[in-house]
Amino acid sequence: NLKNQLLTDHGHNPLMKKVFDVYLCFLQKNQSETALKNVFIALRALIFKFPSTFYEGRADMCSALCYEILKYCNSKLSSIRTEASQLLYFLMRNNFDYTGKKSFVRTHLQVIISVSQLIADVVGIGGTRFQQSLSIINNCANNDRIIKHTTFPSDVKDLTKRIRTVLMATAQMKEHENDPEMLVDLQYSLAKSYASTPELRKTWLDSMARIHVKNGDLSE
């Protein structure tokens, strides 16, 4: 049946890719508040029914979803920020359940990578609105009684702390945006701090490479 087709290869198949791309398209286009809330509800159902798509095998769909949800965590509408934060929490919490309440490493990593990418792509991320969304995610973890006695709440706190560290480092970079050497030094420090996380280290090294190309420092 259709569900089995969608679950082929842990959800990494052409049919699921098409279905997921439809959801992604709804997130990438400007929608009304009501439409967006319905998209968020539909995404919860998709994550719940097909968790392996996001937590097994390749990380591309989990990565794309984290990126788009995080953009809405910076929305001007507080209701959308709340809904997006709760959806991101649901994605992390579901990941934790999927591993038998051991960890949510997959989502944790993809959220950090997405934040790093968003800093370059979205103006104003990291301001008060985004900070409020991080607080909502923390509150969700602290008020979730079912996982109160697990490592999950402290892991969520660690994730939001890491995000804030990246945002602070980025604010410093903003101050030195007209000083390419200082900017690259800051990015290199950030890349080094993620030596144990190759994907994230690569994100910052890629960013450094773009600065070198922009400034014509090809030998670097």
UniProtKB/TrEMBL annotation:
**DOCKER domain ranges (all copies):** 192-220
Keyword Transcription appears in the UniProt entry: no
GO molecular function terms noted in the UniProt entry = guanyl-nucleotide exchange factor activity
Q: What is this protein called?
A: DOCK9 protein
Q: Does the keyword Kinase apply?
A: no
Q: Which family does it belong to?
A: Belongs to the DOCK family.
Which keywords does this Swiss-Prot/TrEMBL entry list?
Answer: Guanine-nucleotide releasing factor
- Give one Pfam family, short name only: DHR-2_Lobe_A
Q: Name one GO biological process term.
A: small GTPase-mediated signal transduction
